Amino acid sequence: MIKSNVILCLKIDRVLIYAVSITISSLTINNGSFDGVLSFKVQDHFGLDKADVSTEKPFHTLAFFREWFLLQRYEKFGFKPFITEMNFDTDIKGVY
Hints:
Layout: H1 2-11, E1 19-30, E2 33-44, H2 63-73, E3 84-95
Antiparallel strand pairs: 1-2, 2-3
């Protein structure tokens, strides 16, 4: 269960995650088994780069992508980098 959530998380932006923090929020160990909660904090810039709007990818035909790229990068529009943060918890349990 943990592995699939981590893979899903990393696939959000082509494995270009800016920062990841994983915390054991709770953990109980009893008689050869354990259960608990892992808390994930994931940060990324989710910005477009030149490769995203190049003619090598299909996105260059979408006006939305070209406009988004321009708004992110054109200094006269007040270019300001941004960070997107996602937080989620997942239950863990197993035996050892």
